[in-house]
Amino acid sequence: MLRQLIFFVSVFVFILVAFQQPCQAQGPAESEVPRVMKKARNDAEKMTLPVNKYREQGWKAAEDTANFFHSPEFQERIQCEQQRLEKEVFAGYTRPWKKKVGQTTAGQKEQAGSLEAGEKIFLFISSSVPDETVHAYIAALDRAGDPHLSLVMRGFVGGMARARVTKDQSYFGRILKKQLDCPRTQTPCERYKVAIRLKPSLFTRYGITKVPAVIYEHDKDSFLIQGDAGLDYLLEKINREAKSTGLTKLIKKIRGTL
Predict the structure, then answer these.
(1) In 3D, which of 69, 73, 66 has the Cα closest to residue 156?
(2) Residue 54 domain-assigned (yes or no)
């Protein structure tokens, strides 16, 4: 790329100088164009490009930036800012549009979701759970595609200390990859678009002391199950007592049989 740039710059400079000559000098100058172009090509081919010693650092910085952008805390900040702008700046423009589209959007969400009104599922995890297990849960949530099924963590990896931010970004960036061992190449790794909610209050409300754990809530009834097992298996055990048609549909969707 650099050699091509040098070549074209050389030709451009020569042509610029030639056009500044009197009209009678254009004839001889035109005959020199092929020679100058050939010389520019030869000079470009002989040039040795220096090795970029910051290549690895650049890749690392780019990956850290991507991980931070996709991290739950940053995405939450983006959503808050979007809501603020919508309310304070663009309310007059978006309100009429949302009034027209809102009913259709809500209907589409209900059709896409498996759970019925009043049903909620919380899947509690932490960074202590093996990556392979968490990754399987994320894949299951992606297949389920239900807005009432949430993946919940107590808080940041290693706490709120600033020194832990990089570790936190690395964790979320790793487990959200569709391929856990995706190598660092010029092509970015594909990632699941599954939200991870940081809600310590939910851990307190349901008395979660061990993860993985699943809470199924329907109106005033709730069911708890703990254990390192597939999400479909845990939901199936809950449904033996809950007997929910929405859960049955969700389990089939996770297993790919619906």
Answers:
(1) 73
(2) no
